[in-house]
Amino acid sequence: MAQIRFCDGTDDYIGWGLWASRAHFPTDTTTLTGVDLVRRAGEMTRRWHPNMQQLIRLTDPATAAWINIRTSAPIPPQMNADDLLHKPVLGRVQLALMRGGMRVVNAFPFLKRRITESIIRTRGAN
């Protein structure tokens, strides 16, 4: 892997990166360096704004490096779009009712204790 060099702080510079899932990169991209890596970035961004294309063309090939970045798989949403919270007006009403309910529970210690015990039974003691 190429060493990444940063400016020493005495000059102005612009840093950029091209990030996408592996499926969007041609298979040989991971083996490219320097001029070929900058050329590939230019090919992949040919429909981008001309100013960004110019920035890529002006890149010093000695500063171009391939870096593998791994991320986790997307976490599935806990609620679907049909839930009330995803509908602005109904979601606000539901949220207000939930907050009101919490205030009532917190105002009565015996209710709070029963709710807490119920949650512990449902979720476990941890």
Helices and strands, with pairings:
Layout: H1 34-44, H2 50-57, H3 88-107, H4 109-123
Number of helices: 4
Helix content: 40-55%
Structural class: mainly alpha
What is the CA–CA distance across the termini?
Answer: 44 Å
Mean pLDDT, to the nearest integer, reads 80
Q: Rounded to an integer, what's the Rg over CA atoms?
A: 27 Å
Shape: elongated
Counting DSSP E segments of at least 2 residues, the number of strands comes to: 0
Q: What is the helix/strand order?
A: HHHH
Number of domains: 2
Strand content: under 5%
List unreliable stretches of 5+ residues: none
What composes the largest sheet?
none
Pick out its properties.
126 residues; mainly alpha; 2 domains; elongated
Overview of the molecule:
Helix 3 crosses helix 4 (109-123). The chain has helices spanning 34-44, 50-57, 88-107, 109-123. The two termini are 44 Å apart. With 126 residues, the protein is mainly α. It folds into two domains: 1-71, no CATH class; 84-123. Helices cover 43% and strands 0% of the residues.
